[in-house]
Fold this protein.
Amino acid sequence: AELTPDPSPEEGFNPFLGESKPGIQSSTTASGQGPSDLGNPFDLGGDSGDALGDLNGTVDLSDDPLADQDLDLAAYGIQPEAISTPEADNIGGLNFEDPDFDDPAFDDPDFAPQGVTPEVMTAFEDPDCDDPGLDDLHGVNPDDPHIAPVAEPPLVVDDSLGAMVAPIPYEAFDCLHVHLEQRDRGITGLAISPDGTIVYTCGPDTYLCGWELYDLKKFAQFDIYSKGADCLALSPDGTTLLTGASHSNMKRWDVSTGQLIAAFNEASMGVNGVAIAFDSQTVVTSASESNLKMWDYGTGELLGPVNDESFGSTGVAIAPDGCTVLSSSLKSNICFWDLTTGELLGPLNDASFGATAVVVSPDGQAVITGHQDGVLAITDWETGQPIRIIKAHDHPITAVAVTPDGWYIVTATMMEMKLWGCWPEA
């Protein structure tokens, strides 16, 4: 028997859903189908008058405590006596009195208001339900034709931030912009601002400059004394640039004014790569004729070499964990070093030979390197397997930088600068 609630208290009020929806008492759905198309959710089977077959059946339960309660259910066509029996109090798959009630009638898949079976109702109540027959959409039956699940992009956990972030689609990366102006050639150092909108560049024959990331348009130039740097790094707060050069000391520059703040001591001459730790306390440098070295960022004093085995590197990077240093070299593979002990942790793989620049993706999942043959390589941090190999330039890559969100990469040679990534879909 089909049950249609009386809408007299409030039009469209459904006592089972506990909400008011205009026209819910209508016998047809929005698609023009009647309730029979979906199956009667309140038809429990059996003959008319049976407690399981007809909720309007009358049962003599004068001793039941619920019979004495003032429940205004008659307005909806339901007699209080009819819902007080253990056999009949399972309405819509929910048992109001006996949590262990298990009637075979409710295992019927046809008993399903829009695909919500008793098993699904259990999944709604139990967040840890791991029924292989259920989808992850909070207990929604994926086979129900009346429910269209919305596809969500897969998410991964960024352990360093404790946040959910979308994986970076390196396979979709393409060249988005190229800067070829002759007057801007000779870039050997790159750094990107914390907000991911500005690129800073340097070179032995160019000044420190600021560029808009998305169109590689130059908008700022530092003072005349900034000319001649070979490498640079930006402080984590984005306020200071640190430069290194083969024939000059390391120097600190104010990003807002373009003015020189201070220079490191004379022992800082000859570096070709520089990285600033995330706590802004330590600087690590590489050099073609020396070892990896550590410096005090605040005072500019040399703290000592990382070890005696890191001689002849072409670039350096600090991983997001703040404990691991990576170095590139023309004579060996990309190497991992423990920043605290100086211990060699191992090579990235056997194919990272001849890298000229190295950075780590912000999520710590990929190592991004530029090579002497113009190749841009993206390699899995854990496995050492290549994720993407791109023939990015016809000349040796001199510098690589990645945006803080990891979605854009900038590469440079002595002839050009390129932006890589993928534009968001409209």
Summary: Helices lie at 35-38, 118-125. The mean pLDDT is 74. Residues 7 and 174 are 60 Å apart (CA to CA). The chain has two helices and 30 strands.
